[in-house]
């Protein structure tokens, strides 16, 4: 008996659920649209669990592989597979999707079916990015993710939503055009193959490697986003609805870092080593400079958006110091950031739904009227600072350890993020939560309802579980990371 196509199910169950929601839910059928969306999101998560339970952590290669001819004339194939790196992102994405559906349950009251359909389709497309092993298939999924997020920001966003949506779309599209050129070059050099794993074996000279490196860099750096191509992210976060900010921070930013892992490092190892100093410099600027920028923000969403850029700088730093601590730390940091950033944006969303303001100055003394919420937000703020015992500490500690093996001063500069992270996060938390109630609106706030408690509770469990016992995450990725580093260390010229 053949095994079920788990990766295809992970991709197409959410997409088909989204289309079903779109077909069944009109303006008068909002309750039906919500119910179908929740069922589809939960089922989409359940079909990914066997990917983890059936995963062989001792094997470095691709597992759950599916291979079907798609466009035979150009040797394009529907080729899917996951290793110890990508399987965790599929699970993270599928875990976040039901939480986003629940979080918008009573908040979204216009075009409900279209809202949920956009998120479900986006979830399936992002699983496709993490599972694709064919260059064309990867590019199709990578580009297609722009459309639902563009719609989410542009339709359900804030007053400047159209500006933010177009800025997001144009930035990411421009980078992706260079990615397409790079993919076509590799197709020609490999004798007509779009198989990404074949490209890993190409003996490219240093000069073309460097040219391709910058082609990949712009596409993936915009997605991360790295300094200085980060300016679209704060605008997108501020204007996006809460669910859009959650998915953008928790999953979409990971597509860029994943591109470095799947394309840049294994296909261009010589260029990666040659230009590692450049990537490390950009990463440290993001960690330090963007951390300082976050300190002066007055809008909670904008502060958390800049915090995301700083934390993702930690990720790219870990990837380009070329040791197991650094790369595994970067991966753990990405998973942790998915939980923590989702939780932080949901916390802001909870307050915004009640007060219709994101400005720090409009709050103060929230703990007096929302003690349960204040406790949850304290945990997530501490995780954002990198407190030991939370998921935020594990990845940052591993990256700093990896940086220490490479260079003490590199580790010293990277560790500054712990100081800046604590400064801007605790400053925001103190101003918003502690003290006497700042005004009558704050005094009248109502604490978490059951739906909000469930969403934040699940994320709190994830943050604590990963912080206390990270082994289930690190043991899955260990063999694949070691294989990647062995590959990058070997000269191919």
Structure notes:
73% of the residues lie in helices and 3% in strands. It has helices spanning 6-24, 30-46, 49-53, 86-103, 112-131, 135-144, 146-156, 161-189, 196-199, 206-223, 232-239, 242-267, 269-274, 276-295, 300-319, 324-355, 371-385, 391-406, 408-433, 440-443, 450-468, 471-489; strands at residues 63-71, 76-82. Helix 18 packs antiparallel against helix 19.
What are the main properties of this structure?
single chain, 493 residues, mainly alpha, two-stranded antiparallel sheet, 22 helices, 2 strands, 3% strand, globular
Helix-strand blueprint:
Elements: H1 6-24, H2 30-46, H3 49-53, E1 63-71, E2 76-82, H4 86-103, H5 112-131, H6 135-144, H7 146-156, H8 161-189, H9 196-199, H10 206-223, H11 232-239, H12 242-267, H13 269-274, H14 276-295, H15 300-319, H16 324-355, H17 371-385, H18 391-406, H19 408-433, H20 440-443, H21 450-468, H22 471-489
Antiparallel strand pairs: 1-2
